[in-house]
User: Fold this.
Amino acid sequence: MNKICLILQGASDYVNIIKEKYKNTDIQIIFSTWKGEESKYNENDIVIFNKMPQESGVQNVMLQQLTTYNGLLKAKELGFQNAIKIREDTYFDDLSLFLKNDIDFNKVNFLYFLDYHRIYGPDKKNNNYKYFCDYIQIGSVDNLLKMWDFKYSQCYYAEQLISKHIFNTFKKEDIAFIGNYVTNDCDIYLISRKLYLSTLDRTYYKINIS
Assistant:
């Protein structure tokens, strides 16, 4: 496995929990958060304190874009070839075990592609709702930088903008799904929702984009 780092993106509400969960791993953590959060870190942490952008976008999508992109730039500056991007309110129960799975770092790896219907937009119609799950991506730093290099444009929900950019940037063969690797023994926990991802109803969570 090539040199890899873990990028935790977003507000710093769970720093101590995250540090405790990863204290026995040898994978470098890069935090990418906001100015004003300095007191939550120490001199041993690698942290980017980002300035809040003027345009937050629907569901704060541009906050996610900025912290993720700048975290990836830091990873590239430090010489990392591959990265795991994850929300700062989410952690792997056993990251080392998860990475023993067959993950192709030359592809952009997502957990799931969601495919269902919901009512949204000004017409309040029942629309097709398809998007890449944006909790976690794993891949080369260069590919992840391409994924997160976009400007804001009108959208109904954050994942719509992200997914449109992914389809415009990558071919289907450049994308892979690793949601099947999330199990009771190798789980991912979403702290803010008190939810293990292995318990999700997989009806709408697809391991493909057909």
